[in-house]
Each structure stands twice: as structure tokens, then as C-alpha cells.
Prior knowledge:
By secondary structure, the protein is mainly α.
Amino acid sequence: MNTETNRRLFISLVAIECLLLLGYILDCLFGNPEGYLHKILCIEDENTIQSWFSSLQLFLVSWYLFGLAFTYGKFRSRKFWALFLLAAGFLFLSADEIIMVHETIGYAIMPEGARAGSRWWYSGIWGFILGPILFAFLVYLFWSLRDLFKGNMHLLWRSLAGVVIFVGAAAMMDELANLFPYKSKGQMIETLMEEGGEMLGVSLILWAVLDLCTKKKIPLLPVGKGEKNEGTGITE
């Protein structure tokens, strides 16, 4: 793979995301008819094509970050643990798309009985608590790796832009769902912005990580041919 291939992959991912959002719009326009097709297209539910697609995206980010960790970080180094924790974090987020850990924590923070009749009737307040924690976790670890991005700082900024979009959509946009009646047009638009933002944010992060891997070749995956820096022995 090379940077042009990575760019085309990013465009392809965005195209798939647009198709998934279009499927949801059509499902809503036809009144959310019950059946197997509705269960697949209704992106506000879990175990849909969109949730599995997002889970795969997050898993790929984790995979390549693990590759960077075990290639460029010594076990006791700060770089290794920053990459390792980032990879583990994205692996957890990948699993969360399917097993909905954040939903469980959300109900622990604000049980269903407390939500009923309140302003936070739909999604509770988990986004206000877990969102900033996740945002700080990802931004701090990415920023601590700026030496790894040296000479390719645009990739760091792309990663951080993806984090802002991803966390903003996943946590903050989800809280906006509390403002609209169930299955209303407002909630449909909110869902499109939330799920679309999540997918776009992760696509940006994956694109940045793939480009970084192309610059710094990972032995365990053929991510691209790099040029070896004779002074450091590191492939760039």
C-alpha cells in the first residue's frame, strides 16, 4: 500500500458510509417497516451493518497501532505504552460497538426509572461523563506520540481531527437525541449526524494511521514499502 492507495481507501469508506446513511433515510421514509431489512438498515439500533462496519474500522485502527507499538516502541519506553494503550482503547471501542458497554454504564449512571419523564429520557447523561474522559484519553496519547509523527505532523492533526469528530458525534450528539420526540424528523437528523460523524471520524483516524504505517513499515503486515533512514535504521 502507498499513500495514494490509502487516500482511495478513505474515499471508499466515506462512500460506504454515505450508502449506509442513505439506507437509514429510506428506512425512515418507508415508516421503519418491521422485518429483517429494517433491522439491518436502522443504524440507531445495534447489530446492524453500520455497527459491524464501525467495529471493523475501529479494529483496523487498533491492529495497526499494535503493529506500531511492537515495531517502534521498546517495552519500557513511553512510546510503546502510549501506542499500546491507544491500540487497546480502539480495540475496546471496536468491541463496544457490538456489546454496548457504554450503554450498560449509561444505565448504571442514570437508571431507566430516573430517565423516565426527565430531560434525559432517551440516552441519559453518559455522554457528558464518559465523552470528556474518552476525548482526554485519546488526545493525550496521540499528542504524546508527536515524536513518532515528526516529519509527518499533518498525520497527527488528521488523527486529532478524527478524534474530535468521532467523540463529538458519539457522546455529545447522542445527548441531543434527548431533545426530540422518539422517531421524529429531528431525531432522524440527529441520528444521521451522530452515526455519520462517528464513521467519518474513525475513517480519518484510520487514514492517518495507515499513512503513518506506510512511512514506517510494519513487518507483520505489508502496509507499504518505506525508505530506510540509514542514520537511524528506521524505515520512513
